[in-house]
Amino acid sequence: MMKAAVLNKGSPVKRILWLALFVLILLASSPVFAADYYVATTGNDSNSGTQAAPWRTIKHAVDKMVAGYTTYVKRGIYNEGLIRFSRSGTASAPIRLLNAPGEFPIVDFGVTESNRVVHRFDMYAGTTTPIGWITIEGDLSPR
User: Fold this and answer.
1) Structural domain harbouring 111
2) Which of 1, 26, 46, 98 has its CA 20 to 30 A from that of 104?
3) CA-CA distance, 84 to 79, in Å (whole number)?
4) What is the pLDDT of residues 111-123, one digit of tens each?
5) 3-class DSSP state of 70
6) How many distinct structural domains can be found in the chain?
7) If you ran DSSP here, which 8-state letter would residue 86 be given?
């Protein structure tokens, strides 16, 4: 008798299953969480990374970034070591590192004639984890 109730078109069990399926489809199609963060030479890496309380280093921002995050770098000279992306974005939620609109930051890796380094922006998460969907943009105009 119980089996017939489960198969009945209007049974509560069947309605709950359809509702659960609908909610799963809705969640799967919802956009990925995205966040905007900021870096400024006047910031501090213990800040929250907001426009009012920016981080200090690009490296710190990159270490925090996940799919869907965008970090805007404000004007100034950033003396950075190795900046390594160790997480991947996605097609619908790339990781984006951009100059803040109208601002022209300079990233100085300290490369000299005797201290040549091939890669200072690096993408590595191990030998079996691919990384992609990362955008780094800035203005290359001479200043």
Assistant:
1) 35-137
2) 46
3) 15
4) 777 776 655 888 8
5) strand
6) 2
7) -
Pick from 81, 86, 84, 85: nearest CA to 117: 81
The mean pLDDT of 91-110, rounded to a whole number, is 91
Q: How far apart are CA 28 and CA 44, in angstroms?
A: 36
26 is a domain residue: yes
In our burial notation (b when 16+ CB lie closer than 10 A, e otherwise), range 22-41 reads: eeeeeeeeeeeeeeebbbbe
- In a shared domain, residues 53 and 117: yes
Map tokens 């100034």 to a residue.
76
Closest alpha carbon to 70 in 125, 137, 2, 143: 137
Bridge partner residues of 95 (DSSP): 134
Look at residue 28 and tell me whether its pLDDT is greater than 60. Answer: no
